[in-house]
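Today's session is about reading a structure prediction critically. Students often jump straight to the picture, but the first step is always the sequence itself: look for stretches that repeat, for charged clusters, for runs of hydrophobic residues. Only then move on to the predicted structure, which in these notes is written as discrete structure tokens rather than atom positions. Here is the chain we will use throughout the hour.
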Amino acid sequence: MNVYQIALPCSYDPSLPFGSLEVSKWVERALDAAGGYTYLGKRLGAWMDGTGLVHTEQMHWYEVACDRDVWNVLVHYAFDLFPNEQAIYTAKAGEAEIIARPLVSGGE
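Below is the predicted structure for this chain, in token form.
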């Protein structure tokens, strides 16, 4: 299992803020497909378009532990939710392991 990160936009267009509906839908899908997520908060980011114009925007940053097939589903769903996005920033942060608490028997 790997840890992936994704930056979801806070708006489709800097002049048109949207509610949390699209992000909430992505979170629901992450819970359903991967079993969980970690919200890392809002971050300010910037990117440069082909003409050299710099675009600055707020993004919601999430981290998810899952296999690659599940991650591909989540990224594809993000593009469905944010149809104006030409690209979505994602990163493979590393390997993940979820360790369950050992059962203790006999009051030990």
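Discussion point for the tutorial: Helices lie at 21-34, 68-81.
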